[in-house]
Design brief:
Blueprint lengths: L1 E6 L3 H4 L14 H14 L2 E7 L37 E5 L10 H8 L3 E7 L1 H14 L3 E10 L3 H13 L3 E3 L1 H4 L3
Parallel strand pairs: 1-2, 1-4, 2-3, 4-5, 5-6
Helix pairs in contact: 4-5
Length: 179
């Protein structure tokens, strides 16, 4: 079964006023919204990860405070949310890695997810953790290249090399929308 993974498209990352805004990330919002709507319309599982940090998160030793639970910055842009919220699973995490939430792997197994289409922010951080974790779990993984962004071109290129070497594949949004 297919699943789309919308990784960390949250206000603190994708809006210029966000606490850890990535320059140009707001340009991804229409692409992410389109993919999410497509998943909802086609009955494809849609899993949206969100950072959800307490005010004293360990991560804040490395990064400035961001995506604090209950703040505006922790929310997803409205365009990336489906009108029928039952068709979009929001998975919260207090770490870069999607799999730091112990419910994720059992949920994917229970749902029979074996084909994963991943997009979001940022390639060298949370997206890397998601794609590599999904590959490690034995699933087929496609990175939707025109709905993903890196903060650093060099770091993003390295992630792409590692991802492809590990068996991942790249796909663009137009091809995904033909599934």
């Amino acid at each position: 079964m297919k699943a789309f993974f919308d990784i960390d498209t949250q206000i603190d990352f994708v809006f210029p006023a966000g606490a850890l805004y990535g320059r140009g990330a707001e340009r991804l919002i229409p692409a992410v919204a389109e993919l999410n709507r497509f998943a909802g319309e086609r009955g494809i599982a849609l899993i949206s990860s969100t950072c959800a940090h307490p005010e004293n998160a360990e991560e804040f030793r490395v990064w400035p405070p961001h995506c604090v639970t209950g703040t505006v910055g922790q929310q997803k842009p409205a365009a990336t949310l489906l009108a029928d919220r039952k068709k979009q699973m929001i998975v919260e995490k207090n770490d870069l890695d999607l799999f730091s939430n112990p419910d994720v792997l059992p949920m994917l197994d229970r749902m029979g997810i074996d084909e994963c289409y991943v997009y979001g922010v940022f390639l060298e951080h949370c997206v890397r953790c998601a794609v590599m974790g999904l590959l490690k779990s034995g699933r087929k993984v496609w990175l939707v290249t025109d709905a993903t962004m890196a903060l650093s071109q060099e770091a993003g290129d390295k992630v792409m090399q590692d991802f492809l070497a590990a068996g991942g594949q790249c796909i663009d949004r137009a091809r995904v929308l033909q599934l």
